[in-house]
Fold each of these.
Amino acid sequence: MSIIRQELVNRNSGWAAEMSGGQTLTLSARTIIDFVAFDAANPNLAFDQAITKENNLSIYLREADGLYSRSDQLLMTFIADGFRGLGTHDLQFGMCGRARHKRAAKEGRLNEYLHGHNMTLPDHGCAENLTWALEDWGIRYENIPSPINFFQNMEISQDDGGMKRTQVRPSAPVDIVLRAEKDLLVAFSACPDMASKTGGLGVGVLISD
Ligand SMILES: [Zn+2]
């Protein structure tokens, strides 16, 4: 194994990079990560939540599951999940951001983030972080798909489909490892993670082959 790229991404900021097929991406964290992937040759072919859930027959992304594009291409495989047995990775939600925070405050729903109404709202979130990270590739917000929300553990009711955020996160950073199945552009936001006790943390990144 050789290291292609290694860095630390600060809390509430974004990151993007190209990867070659066969390389692996390791993210080390204990905070929510909003993650997306695109076919490097055609960024219109982006990760898609619905096809991914259908092909894996699961509403969560589990170890050995694939990440698929809307056109049913296998983009990545989730080869190691350090959160397994501790919590689950969300495939329902979109991205937090200015618009979502504003709406939650206006509708009096900030308590859904589990810290009550007296919380400081960040001036940006994952929507802005991913938009800024993908600017250099000419990808606009409208073309960024709803992400995989790694470490976003949710309670989902079988009876009525109700969804609740939880504060379940790894107590110390754990690794999640994804293998690129073709040449890709990948990007993520280290979420401000307003539901967590820490309010979002940095993420370690390693690309290797
Ligand atoms: Zn977020």
Amino acid sequence: MRHINLPIFIPHLGCPNDCVFCNQRKISGTMCFNKSSVRNEIDSFLKTVDTENTEVQLAFFGGSFTGIDREDMLYLLGIAKEYIDKGLIGSVRLSTRPDYIDGEILDILETHGVKTVELGIQSMSDKVLSACKRGHNADTSRRACRMIKERGFELIGQMMTALPCSTAEDEYNTALELVSLGIDGARIYPTMVFSGTVLEEMYKQGSYLPPDLDALTERTAYVFSVFARMQIPVIRIGLQASDGLGDSDGIVAGCYEAAMGEMVISRYYMNRMLPLLNSMKDEIKGKDLIIHCAKGEISKIIGHKQTNKMKILNEYNVKNIKILEKDDIMLYNMVIDYN
Ligand code: SF4
């Protein structure tokens, strides 16, 4: 069975918070939301999908779903439940904030076919959460994660890199803690400075300086290494190129790259290979280097615009590089050989 998300964007609805980095309407690419149009959106989407062979998950994204007006939330979940009961969709996933999770909300989600809760955790450092005016602390996130897992929902942890006051170590520790809290998957969002946000003012005043692309890639790859080591699926790295975002519209600073995910994973692979290549430097000179990897990983090892391949060729003076898939190699692992 194929899995597909049917995304319905709920931008900033009911969110009284103003996290410094957030301009939700820009991020979601949807400027307004009309709840009566949801059925049409679902119906049009389903016409394009082979529902017999596809597990469709209705995904309420873009805002803090469990914080919206309770009547609206029940209305939307009620529609979702109708489609689930008719067998047209399999389940619901939604994104929300840790402080909008409690026992009563989880009761409602459980009875309306919600399977997956994506939690916008962003950081597990109280210093960073406070600098971002996030409105809750890390303990709130710990409590929400535990409740979600105890109730048997799938938990996706969303976190950010390069937030104000955040260091690479803060981000690495956030990833470690998310793993220990039992997340089933992660999303990593490098911080962008959007126009109209408090972060834009901070940037203009000089109190926030975004890292350059290389540093941002390195920091995000450091976070990714935690999830890769623990075999936790990372379902997204970087914002999606939605309308009004792909052309950098609305981004004042920060390095938006449509290929951020690929760049980060390639950097992760390069960082894994470096110590090994250094230890073999004399032996591999002038030889053919053979890298065995898991299925589907060749292009990530070669690197975005062949950066990894060129670096190895230039810095290690190998004659040629062959990258081969092998069935028995686990995702993100490699075996390096030469002849
Ligand atoms: S809680 Fe979410 S939607 Fe609300 S301001 Fe913060 S990031 Fe934006």
